[in-house]
């Protein structure tokens, strides 16, 4: 599409040459060169110029005429050059090479005719609009039109576009019609809350607006607008209009990961001067923002003559055009069906929550969901939080690798266990006595793992973590936190780290990656963006020991069949394996805990995190059940 530029063109510093001549010089070339130098500098003093009728023109009048015809290009005078004019007694003619630098950096070049006349032994330039461009006439001006390029799509795993043009309804308030502003804002605020729209400052914004302004309240998909239409369409001052916007399949579809596409803002324009114009579309947040330059492509430009019309709109004559370059797609590993199941699962949680699903066979990230309402940030990738007892999966791997325990080894699970004066306990004051290690794992006994930590040591915990990719340097093509393992000193810190407390912090993505490694039997770096592929890859990691990973898988199945995640036994299809987690994060209030679950079913590994959700079994497991049941 074509769009007129509204901003002044940034001034360009042009190289200048010494072109000084006056109307009394010997030849027409000297006068012409002086005129061209004066055109570029805006100073035509000493240069003789006459009208087509032979009347002498002042330097100020000539300069004003050039600027008027140049229009939007007036502040960036062109580079100008001309060969010696052809002379015939009192007349001379020539062609001027005109080379403009346009806002997009492109060059627009052409030849313009020029005439000179000789009188009183002095040459003078004959002024006419054609000197600026052969097609210009008095009253015309040059303008630059921006030609928007076609924004490329973000693609899913099958190569299909995730975003496409969809109908929306823009809801706005017109101040002069808002006869009951307080009532209108109250109703709008209540109705928009379900879409995650906060209208806290709307009343003040409307009061500060001009009477004929439109204050945009929200832009809703037509399906969402249908839910509130009956309650808001007749509110005083509310008016709506339909538009098309580039949107994902649903309002929450991987929203925090993908971002959105919308009109460019003042902040966008200030951050990248000269890149955008009012009316442009750009990415906000997520992959749409990270890969915006690639996706939006390069806009084209056209130079037109604007002809003033006696009545009505002016007309335009195109002189030159550079076609836009379309953007290049970004291909991801997301699976729409699995993503929708993840979004639906998280939608039932009112607290901040995240779900990451990875294909075990190849490490592809197939779903990334955040909530509520799609999430304000991509916690699934960027949260840095303690993993709680889900980390017992990592610690158990280290213990099995080092032959410290076997699956059936007897391990005591007392009510409390004290290390260096710090006392650890179990949820609900659980004590199991001496039971097989797999029971300690399935029932999530903190004290058993705290006691075993001294045998494993910090190096052992670090080695097990590294085997599963935690704290690694892998890059998925989006901002992501891979985790940090506690150094395990002093001994009390190591005891806490053994069951996911202390200074160990992870993201849901890091834990989903580790879980997929256990299910696969080897770490494979997760992948999200396939094209453009992230630079570099982590060093290969040796496969996990079969003698360790096989019993660990059996223990994670027991968590579902007889442990802390028995609600998942009823999920149909392939069996579910997993580990719940309850993570303390506030030393001043140990009752505040995050809820976790990590596990897999079939070829899909998953990590679910619920901020301040309480227990993993109470908060995370129901989301996992909904997710797996939908697949």
TrEMBL record:
Where is this chain's protein located in or outside the cell? Membrane
Q: Which domain of life is it from?
A: Bacteria
Q: Key word Ribonucleoprotein present in the record?
A: no
Segments forming domain Penicillin-binding protein dimerisation: 147-307
Domain Penicillin-binding protein transpeptidase positions: 354-627
Keyword Cytoplasm applies: no
Give start-end of the signal peptide. 1-21
How is this protein annotated for GO cellular component? plasma membrane
The similarity comment for this entry is: Belongs to the transpeptidase family.
- Show where the NTF2-like N-terminal transpeptidase domain sits: 28-140
Question: Which GO molecular function terms does the record list?
Answer: penicillin binding; peptidoglycan L,D-transpeptidase activity
Tell me which InterPro entries the record gives.
Answer: Beta-lactam/transpept, Beta-lactam/transpept-like, MecA_N, PBP_dimer, PBP_dimer_sf, PCN-bd_Tpept
Name the record gives this protein: Cell division protein FtsI/penicillin-binding protein 2
Q: Write out the entry's keywords from A to Z.
A: Cell cycle, Cell division, Membrane, Signal
